[in-house]
Amino acid sequence: MPLWIAAIWGLVGSGVAEALNLYAMMRPSTESKGRWQWPWRDRRDRPIVLLAVSLRTFAGTGLAAAAGAGGVADDPFATFILGVTAPLVIAKMFDQIRMLDQSSGTELDTPEGHADDGA
Question: pLDDT tens for residues 42-76?
């Protein structure tokens, strides 16, 4: 499969994953009184959210293109699936990163909801 076709299928797959992710974040909540909201709380957060979406889409496109060029994925469905999974795996990896409180330098809660005791 030509590189550009693999990249397009990866882009389509990444676009599908990001569209579903944005849709899930835009659902109405009790906090918004049943109205649909964009996934950012403040207009200043919008560029960061859009940058993250763009980077994950780019990663899915690149992974699918590399797999297509390397002969690992030689059909459209395989490159589409690589495009879908790359943003999801990247988002999950970043969910696992521990955040530090900038003011005190202490570790905040882990994604599981409890502080890491180091054991």
Answer: 788 888 888 888 988 998 999 899 988 888 888 89
Q: State how far the Cα of 15 lies from the Cα of 54, in Å rounded to an integer.
A: 9
Q: How far is CA 49 from CA 5, 25, 43, 108, in A?
A: 28, 11, 10, 22
pLDDT > 50? residue 119:
no
HSE of 41 in the Cβ direction (CA atoms, 13 Å)?
A: 1
Structure-derived torsion over alpha carbons of residues 64, 68, 74, 79, reported in degrees to the nearest 10: 10
Separation CA 51–CA 106 (nearest Å): 28
Residue 38 near residue 27 (C-beta atoms within 8 A): no
How far is Cα 71 from Cα 99, in angstroms, rounded to an integer? 38
pLDDT in tens, 8-25: 999 999 999 988 888 887
- Residue 100: strand pairing partners: 107
